[in-house]
UniProtKB/TrEMBL annotation:
Recorded family membership: Belongs to the MreD family.
Species for this entry: Limosilactobacillus coleohominis 101-4-CHN
NCBIfam families (alphabetical): shape_MreD
Major localization listed first in the record, in broad terms: membrane
Name of the protein in its database record: Rod shape-determining protein MreD
Keywords: Cell membrane, Cell shape, Membrane, Transmembrane, Transmembrane helix
GO cellular component: plasma membrane
Higher taxonomy: Bacteria, Bacillati, Bacillota, Bacilli, Lactobacillales
Transmembrane segments: 36-55, 67-92, 112-135, 142-165
C-alpha cells in the first residue's frame, strides 16, 4: 500500500529536508545552540520519524529501513563514528511503536512519546560517546547542560511543526482515499 500512496514521495523528501535542516540549524545558530556550558541538539529527523509513525494511518511506511538509511547518512556526514545512529534511529522507531500501544493518538500523547524518545536518544548517545571516550562530562552536567536545553528546543519544534506536518499527511492521505 505504501508503494501506491503519495507518502512514498512525501516521507523521504521530508526526511531529507529534516536531515539537512538539523545540520544547517546547528551551523547557522551555533552561537545560540552551543553557548558554553549549554548545548542544544536539533532532532528534526527524530521528530519526522515519530510524527510519521503517528500520522501514517493505514499506509505503513517502512520506517525501520528509512531509519537505518538516515542513520548511515548521519554517521557518515555528522558524527564521524560509524554505527551509532544506524542503531539509535531504528531503536527509537521501535520505542515509539512500543509506547504508542499505551496511548491513543492526540497532541499531548504524541508530545509525551516524543519527549521520551528524545530523552532516550540523547541518553544513549551520551553513554555511547562516554564509553568510547569522546565525552568527559558527568551525568549531572549532561542532564542540566545538554539534555534540558535539547528537550526545550525540540519541544518547541514539536509545538510549531505538529499541526503543519499533520495537515501535510492528512492532505496526502485524503488524496489517496479519493
Amino acid at each position: 500500500m505504501y508503494r501506491l500512496s503519495r507518502l512514498r514521495f512525501l516521507f523521504p523528501i521530508g526526511l531529507f529536508i529534516t536531515f539537512f535542516l538539523d545540520g544547517s540549524f546547528s551551523k547557522v545558530f551555533a552561537n545560540q545552540f552551543f553557548s558554553y556550558p549549554y548545548s542544544m541538539v536539533s532532532q528534526l529527523v527524530l521528530l519526522w520519524l515519530v510524527l510519521a509513525y503517528f500520522f501514517e494511518g493505514n499506509i505503513k511506511i517502512p520506517l525501520y529501513g528509512f531509519a537505518i538509511a538516515v542513520g548511515v547518512l548521519t554517521d557518515l556526514f555528522y558524527s564521524g563514528i560509524f554505527g551509532l545512529f544506524i542503531v539509535l534511529y531504528p531503536l527509537i522507531v521501535w520505542l515509539t511503536k512500543l509506547l504508542a500501544t499505551f496511548f491513543n493518538e492526540n497532541f499531548f500523547n504524541t508530545l509525551l512519546v516524543f519527549f521520551i524518545d528524545v530523552c532516550v536518544f540523547q541518553l544513549l548517545n551520551y553513554w555511547a560517546f562516554l564509553i568510547i571516550g569522546v565525552v568527559h562530562v558527568n551525568i549531572v552536567n549532561f542532564l542540566l547542560n545538554t539534555l534540558a536545553p535539547t528537550l526545550a528546543l525540540n519541544l518547541v519544534y514539536f509545538v510549531l511543526l505538529y499541526w503543519p506536518i499533520h495537515s501535510l499527511y492528512e492532505r496526502a492521505l485524503a488524496k489517496q482515499r479519493s
